[in-house]
Amino acid sequence: MNSKQRFRARFIFVLIILAAAGLASSLYWTQVVKGKSYAMRATAQYAKPATNLFDRGTIFFASKDGTRPAAAAVAGGRVVYMNPSLMKDSEGAFQAISMYLDLDREEFMRKSAKAGVYEELARRVEDTTAASIVGLRLPGVGAARQTWRTYPGDRLAAHVLGLVGESADGNVQGRYGLERTHESTLKRSQSGASNVFADLFSGIKESVFGDGTSSAGDIVTTLEPTVQGYVENVLAKAHATWKPDSIGAIVMDPESGQIRAAAVLPAFDPNDLSTVRDVRVLSNPLVEHVYEMGSIVKPLTIALGLDTGAISPSFTYDDTGSVTLDGKKISNFDGRARGISSLQDIVNQSLNLGAASIALKAGKEKFGEYFAAFGLTGKTGIDLPNEAASLVGNLKSGRDIEIATASYGQGIAVSPIAMTRALAVLANGGYLVRPHLTQEIIREDNTTEVTPFQKEGPVLSQRTTTEVTRLLVEAVDTALKNGAIKMEHYSVAAKTGTAQIPDPSAGGYYRDRYLHSFFGYFPAYDPQFIVFLYQINPKGAAFASETLVDPFAEIAKFLINYYDIPPDR
Hints:
The protein is an alpha+beta fold and 569 residues long. Strands 1, 2, 3, 4, 7, 15 and 16 form a seven-stranded mixed β-sheet that branches. The chain has a five-stranded antiparallel β-sheet with strand order 9-8-20-19-18, with helices on both faces. A hairpin with a 5-residue loop joins strand 5 and strand 6 (172-174). It is elongated, with a radius of gyration of 31 Å.
């Protein structure tokens, strides 16, 4: 072979190699990189439905007895369909299928008269029912495998669990709640399609785009289903009585930040969104909304006053009923003067001027520093999406009036979860914890990732928290509804709050709309739980002492009995 022939042979060989490489690259791109997209296009043109089979990790509750009932899982069944072009006897087919499915005759006939090749008759049909329909051997009638996300508790903890929805390419994704937070963990393969070439190159794909290990797994929440259900029932009764625009509750371990219950009404059923008229109901106001919380802020103001040394436990002031600061008048809720008043009077009678006096004695700088230390100026980092930032610009105004109003919970707005975390500082000896709803993640490789407890501080001394707790216990025992919810064998620290609701259209505040809030922890000197309650614009009552004391008492007694908490007095 001469040199010219050798050159031609080599040239042809190189061309073959390049062509093979180009073909391989094209096949790789078509079947591996874009395979799912093309498969979906193909199934969309086929006479049999593309039912988007998918798998997804399970979300579990964590029961007191150690069991883990499913809160969100994947269910399977069939979609029953017809091919109108093959339908021979529409009336006979309708009569036969109606023995198994509740069908609308007019709708069935309309679909059977269409010129297409696929019309859906029913989704989420049990396998046995679908098998019976297929067994009828009706021309043009069939059933295909289908999977879907299901929530066994229906509305139970709906705002926390969230829900899933389909993306533009047909994939199921978490949209709200823990479903969205843990999307990367819960998502699984969403197509049953596979091909030899894709399998051949799977090792190459993993080596180029990752090591092939999966972060997929199941989620175990901190929610206790019995507690969650009880709290939701208590809220439902209060909602029926006072008809607020919204009502919510949080039950949290103040030491660890684990949330045992978190509920909001109005709620929704993630299994059936057909009744949802306003998509805003799907968002979680416990995390995503901020409010001016009112007098439940006063114990924090007292705490910072004591902790800075601005006041002592024997502090008194002359309550004149109202005072003018920076040209604006503030007053007690009823405008009445109390004369010489103590810290206990401030708590028992919820005196705005008392809180303002303490804040001004501590000074603007210290007041702002402590509110930041309580976590009220930032986000909690809770494992839920769309956490709202606090609106606390008034703390930086430099004016006495803004510090005074903030001291009793007006002029600054925070989320319910941020408020709960801040108040937990009083219950746990002065530490700022991170509230969380994920107890652990169980990976597909059987490894377990436990959520660690996170806390900062102390941000208050234990002497301060003990003194504030004493004031709150005394208020419950003697002043709150005249001692009606005092427990003989359990100390309870609690405080109500009533705040005016801002009027966004006219400016200022509504004269007839209020936010009611309440928090309490127990047993007061070694708390197992902190309970936070709020409702927006309840009807027929002006103060939280009328609307939220009894719901709190119900929840507290239930928790004490359910967890068999030992008495502390």
